[in-house]
Design brief:
The protein folds into 2 domains: about 200 residues, Rossmann fold (3-Layer(aba) Sandwich), CATH 3.40.50; about 60 residues, no CATH class. It is built from 12 helices and 9 strands. The radius of gyration is 20 Å and the shape is elongated. Bound molecules: S-adenosylmethionine.
């Protein structure tokens, strides 16, 4: 396991690989943090785990050693080849399943359809953390639990409350399905190369009474949030007449004034809107 800057550097040299900034290649070099990710997830060993961006396989190896089946998606060809070599015995036994692809296009990697209960444990590439999460929430396959490493700012956006500057469409979709199960601050020195921003290890637990927003409503809410500071009444005018009608009824029913701004509307109120917009509209 590559758990120091010098060992990671040497491994990267052997692989003739330079960390790619655009792909968020900041590799974990802190053994305590690897174990913390696993203990925070607190999963039974028979729970399959989805990992996004296994990289050099540091976290992957520990997940496998703990007995989990791991389904992973990695975009980088060279890292894929390294993982296939390093974890060959786990691949052979079927415990490790690796897909080389873009996690945004394949948010659940190659997880078989018949697996309903699974968890996510991952040190997410920062550039795609929101896009991947959106894809996952829209995939219809919601993990029981997620323990994900994210940039601090991304965490703040995801957990933001209505009325705050960072509350956005993804905060709504995520909070309608998950609640925070724990947070752990992670200094940038835990990675090689060290990123310019600190991170957070975040546990999210799936809600019993979750509400996955349907695709057509997610598109609508995302569109509305591109002009989050405008009054909802004027934004509604850009929509089809059928959608306008439903939205006006919804505002009335929720006792919301048309001058309200999208960022002030609560998750529960957006959920009520979603329930009243049929797909065929
Ligand atoms: N899991 C490793 C660790 O903790 O040391 C690496 C984590 S590193 C922050 C992010 C990893 O995600 C890199 O291996 C990178 O190549 C991969 N990655 C970046 N963009 C990706 C994408 N769109 N789809 C799949 N993997 C991606």
């Amino acid at each position: 396991m590559a758990l120091s800057p010098s060992v990671t550097n040497e491994l990267l040299r052997q692989l003739d690989h330079r960390p790619n900034k655009k792909l968020g290649q900041n590799f974990l070099i802190d053994g305590n943090l690897v174990e913390k990710s696993i203990s925070m997830a607190d999963l039974p060993t028979n729970m399959p785990v989805l990992e996004i961006g296994p990289g050099l396989g540091t976290l992957t190896e520990r997940l496998l050693a703990h007995g989990h089946s791991v389904y992973a998606v990695e975009i980088d060809r060279r890292l894929e080849a390294h993982l296939r070599e390093q974890l060959a015995s786990y691949i052979e036994s079927g415990q490790f399943n690796l897909l080389r692809a873009d996690a945004v296009k394949y948010p659940t990697a190659n997880l078989p359809d018949e697996i309903d209960d699974f968890a996510v444990v991952a040190n997410l590439p920062y550039a795609i953390s929101s896009a991947w999460l959106e894809g996952l929430l829209g995939s219809g396959k919601l993990p029981l639990r997620m323990v994900i490493m994210l940039q601090k700012e991304a965490t703040e956006r995801m957990l933001a409350s209505p009325g705050s500057k960072t509350f956005n469409a993804l905060s709504i979709f995520l909070q309608a399905c998950y609640k925070t199960g724990g947070k752990h601050a992670v200094p940038r020195q835990c990675f090689f190369p060290a990123p310019s921003i600190d991170s957070v290890l975040l546990r999210m637990d799936r809600l019993e009474n979750r509400f996955p927003f349907p695709n057509h409503v997610r598109v609508l809410i995302r569109r509305i949030f591109t002009q989050r500071r405008k009054q909802l009444g004027s934004l509604i005018k850009n929509e089809d007449s059928a959608v306008q009608e439903v939205m006006h009824c919804w505002l009335k029913k929720q006792n919301l004034c048309p001058s309200i701004r999208p960022e002030k509307i609560s998750c529960a109120e957006w959920t009520e809107l979603a329930r009243s917009i049929p797909e065929e509209i």
